[in-house]
Specification:
Peptidase_S1_PA; signal; Thrombin, subunit H; 4% helix; 9-stranded antiparallel sheet; mainly beta
């Protein structure tokens, strides 16, 4: 995994400024602001709407059906949960939280400190994902700071999708083309499925970039969350993920990085944009 402790990297981490508590403003119930998502080449992916945590990266996101009056959402990796990495088979839902992070603009400058009061969902089983509900609405963030959330794609990405991975923790962006998908990836006690396999060049992600959004550069939409990379060439150990074939054969490639699917979230939404694991067709693991 690519999580880093604040103590180890305090000097390099983005410094969190004095807390600015955001309160929800009044807003009409219309779709949350989103960039034009019509397919087009070379969308300019910047650090806008990324969030620096104390040990990971995150992003301000919306579902395709989110309303401006909805509470804003923060996406990061499951192993970035502040209570520690969930065990294999563990699913967390609707847990009180006080997680905060620094929201950045396109040039990497601080806009505000955003706060969560609820962890909506987190797991490291089958995928590696966390979604938090912030204390303010999309409309309030837009009116006060001009912040526009990234939209989570409702579709599975294509095998050769060009992606950008903007990390607020490191104030930098990696870019590469997906090299298809890994049916099963194992790392230590955890197993993930249908993982985004990063191309051989351009996405040599590092610790602290965990939880960064994988952004499709043709649409500007989020298609994954940055997860892990094989650091030492070991087989299936911590920080050294391996791929498992249908016959059980394991292979590893030093420097191979992975992301996890995010469209799974959209398969579990109710009409009010709440995550309901009983929704027909929901792909997220259940407790």
């Amino acid at each position: 995994m690519l999580k880093r402790t604040a103590a180890m990297f305090a000097a390099a981490a983005v410094t969190l400024a004095a807390a600015l508590t955001l309160t929800a403003g009044s807003a009409s119930a219309h779709p949350a602001p989103a960039a034009d998502t019509a397919a087009r080449p070379n969308v300019s992916v910047t650090l806008a709407s990324t969030i620096a945590l104390n040990d990971c990266s995150a992003s301000l996101v919306r579902y395709p059906t989110s309303l401006s009056s909805d509470r804003a959402l923060m996406l990061t990796a499951g192993h970035c949960f502040e209570g520690g990495m969930p065990s294999a088979g563990e699913v967390l839902q609707n847990v009180a939280s006080s997680r905060s992070g620094t929201l950045l603009n396109s040039s990497g400058r601080r806009l505000a400190t955003v706060r969560a009061d609820k962890l909506l969902y987190a797991t490291m089983t089958d995928t590696d994902i966390s979604v938090y509900e912030l204390t303010t609405t999309f409309a309030a963030l837009s009116s006060q700071y001009g912040a526009t959330p990234l939209t989570i794609s409702a579709s599975h990405p294509a095998a050769n999708t060009s992606i950008a991975i903007p990390s607020a923790y490191w104030d930098r962006t990696w870019r590469c083309t997906l090299n298809g998908f890994a049916g099963t990836v194992e790392e230590d006690q955890w197993t993930w499925h249908d993982s985004l396999r990063y191309g051989a060049t351009g996405c040599a992600v590092i610790g602290g970039s965990s939880g960064s959004p994988d952004v499709d550069t043709a649409t500007g939409q989020v298609v994954g969350v940055n997860n892990t990379i094989n650091e030492d060439g070991q087989m299936c150990t911590l920080d050294n993920p391996c791929e498992v074939g249908s016959d059980g054969t394991t292979t590893e490639h030093k420097g191979q990085g992975y992301g996890q699917e995010t469209y799974w979230l959209t398969t579990c939404l109710t009409a009010s944009n709440a995550i309901n694991l009983s929704t027909p067709g929901c792909l997220l693991p259940k407790p």
